[in-house]
Write a structure and sequence with these properties.
The structure holds 2 protein chains of 2 kinds.
Chain A (H helix, E strand, L loop, with lengths): L13 E3 L17 H22 L5 E2 L10 E10 L31 E5 L4 E6 L11 E8 L5 E7 L17 E5 L11 H12 L5 H7 L2 E7 L20 H19 L4 E4 L29 E3 L4 E5 L2 E6 L2 H9 L5 H10 L30 E7 L3 E6 L5 E8 L1 H4 L3 E4 L4 E3 L1
Parallel strand pairs in A: 2-3, 5-7, 8-9, 9-10, 10-11, 13-14, 14-16
Antiparallel strand pairs in A: 1-12, 3-4, 3-6, 4-5, 6-7, 8-17, 12-13, 15-16, 17-18
Chain B lengths: L1 H10 L12 H10 L32 H18 L11 H10 L23
Classes of the chains: A alpha/beta, B mainly alpha.
């Protein structure tokens, strides 16, 4: 029989753009979250002040303090949504305990939710053409409207920043693929080791005939978007763990390390932390420590990345999270599908507007790292319910491939993206 | 100096309401008694339709001569810088850090307000 043909794996130029998400040199001095809101408002306001004259040329832009009754104007500020059902620590001190439901709903929306616009000078309640169900606290928008005699601001039109500018991609005729997977949940009861092993074999080329292997050789990178391990909750409730149970905590991580070593021996892998992984709780989650992956971290193809994660592959810009930002938007607002939440975050130019209101966040004093300055070509969110994808088109010829990556332990689906044509296969 | 700071504490107007003294029990008692809750830190948004007007504290009566007057003047300018809402919230940052942030954001803060020491803003420890 003829000797087997050696296939070489393709490579792509990778550059990691995660400096803004790593917390190095930040020293916590006891500051509160007002600073992050201030920098967010400042950046977005500078942007919106530049965009508003082209959309509403003859309207004056004022602050909340400068509103005059009946006069048409444009206001720029941060939205605050007052939500009746949002859990508050002060409920413990409230006298009317019976009004608070014991079972927390998954979605905190209520028909009585109302929006308020805030800037440094003051706040004003909003009414009119701005549906509270579509917005969340922390979004900076420009509003066209007028103050009413009741003291509200009657909104006529809402102007979001829209998609940021995007660098145009040259069209390249080469076949390269990137594989996204999330929610492996090694160690949970729903984890199927055979399924994960099949995925690894497929990616590393141990599976299938020559055609399949040829496709597998074109995979240039694997991105693991969060929730790779699942540690039994009974070990995490604050009680001391018995000596015989202590090794059990590390078992899922060791198993993940063994599987990952097979992958990293073959191609570059980026692993991001998720809400169940041993990383910090507040965004931006710091990269998982190398000591957790004693086998895989010896390879230079292994890269532990923060959440959110931003990188370039052959000049194609990728940005994505392990899903906490989209899940929090789902809890606080309404949209027809998860991709619409992702679209909104891009149009608002902010990955996680609900941070720090209902999503944990580090209290930065001089920057807001979640602001999106340039439009990515691919935007992904891990740990979602279903696989969904759409090509979002912007007003200035921007094109973004939105990918909602399902949990692998439940669906067995990983997503393969064709790098230069921006199409997705599952 | 410590003496100057103590004098300033006494002479500041109490426009911002009582300091939150006591712990958990005192807080419960205050909530049960009713009345207005203590105001938020200067960085949070004011609840009223118009911003709460914060009086700029008057400098304490100084006993010394020229050098003291110069220091008090610098302190007054630093307090005006703290109070100016264009540069954002002041609580939680030293004056130097807030000045650097304002400069980095392109707001051109007044150069005389830049303090080289690690002085916190006027509200530190009082809110």
């Amino acid at each position: 029989p003829p000797p087997p043909v050696a296939m070489e794996r393709k490579q792509a130029d990778y550059s990691n753009l995660d400096e803004r998400y790593t917390i190095q040199g930040e020293r916590y001095q006891g500051q509160q979250y007002s600073h992050i809101y201030y920098t967010r408002l400042h950046h977005m306001r500078t942007l919106l002040h530049a965009l508003v004259p082209s959309r509403k040329p003859h309207l004056p832009v004022t602050t909340v303090l400068g509103l005059e009754e009946g006069k048409d104007c444009v206001l720029v500020g941060t939205l605050y949504k007052h939500m009746k059902l949002k859990p508050s620590i002060l409920d413990e001190y409230s006298k009317e305990r019976s009004a608070i439901p014991l079972v927390k709903p998954h979605n905190f929306m209520h028909s009585d939710d109302n929006l308020i616009l805030e800037d440094e000078s003051g706040r004003v309640a909003l009414a009119g053409a701005i549906p509270p169900a579509a917005y969340v606290t922390g979004v900076v928008v420009a509003l066209h409207g007028k103050e009413t005699s009741a003291g509200n601001f009657l909104v006529e039109d809402v102007m979001e920043a829209g998609l940021p500018p995007q660098t145009v991609l040259p069209s390249i005729n080469e076949d390269k693929y990137v594989v996204f997977v999330s929610g492996l949940s090694v160690g949970s009861s729903t984890f199927n080791p055979l399924q994960f092993q099949l995925l690894i074999d497929h990616i590393t080329g141990h599976l299938g005939d020559e055609n399949e292997q040829a496709i597998a050789s074109k995979i240039v990178r694997v991105v693991v978007a969060g929730n790779s391990v699942h540690i039994a909750p009974r070990f995490l409730n604050g009680q001391t763990v018995a000596a015989k149970d202590q090794p059990r905590i590390a078992e899922p991580i060791k198993e993940l390390d063994i599987m990952l070593t097979q992958l990293v021996a073959s191609l570059p892998v980026d692993i991001m932390p998720g809400c169940n992984d041993p990383a910090n709780f507040a965004l931006p989650q710091q990269p998982l420590h190398r000591c957790l992956f004693s086998g895989a971290s010896t390879y230079n193809t292994f890269s532990s990345c923060p959440n959110p994660h931003q990188f370039d592959l052959d000049n194609v810009k990728f940005i994505g999270t392990s899903g906490q930002n989209i899940d929090d938007l789902y809890r606080n607002s309404d949209a027809k599908d998860r991709l619409e939440f992702m679209e909104r975050t891009l149009k608002w130019r902010h990955l996680a507007p609900t941070a720090p209101n209902s999503l944990g966040c580090y209290p930065y004093t001089d920057k807001d790292p979640f602001l999106v300055e340039t439009c990515p070509h691919v935007y992904f969110a891990g740990n979602q319910d279903r696989y969904e994808t759409r090509l979002l088109k912007g007003t200035e010829k921007q094109q973004v491939r939105l990918i909602s990556i399902p949990r692998f332990c439940e669906s067995g689906i990983a997503v393969m993206l064709h790098l230069h044509s921006n199409n997705c296969i599952k | 100096s410590y003496e100057e700071r103590r004098r300033r504490q006494v002479l500041l107007p109490a426009a911002e309401g009582p300091l939150r003294r006591g712990g958990h029990q005192a807080h419960r008692r205050r909530l049960q008694e009713g009345g207005a809750p203590p105001p938020e830190a200067s960085g949070g948004a004011p609840d009223a339709r118009y911003a709460a007007v914060r009086p700029i504290p008057t400098p304490p009566i100084h006993h010394g001569g020229g050098a003291d007057a110069g220091r008090e003047d610098a302190e007054r300018k630093a307090r005006e810088f703290d109070m100016d809402m264009r540069y954002g919230p002041c609580l939680g940052l030293t004056r130097a850090q807030r000045w650097q942030r304002a400069a980095a954001l392109g707001l051109a803060p007044p150069p005389h307000a830049l303090c080289s020491d690690d002085q916190p803003c006027i509200w530190e420890g009082r809110v």
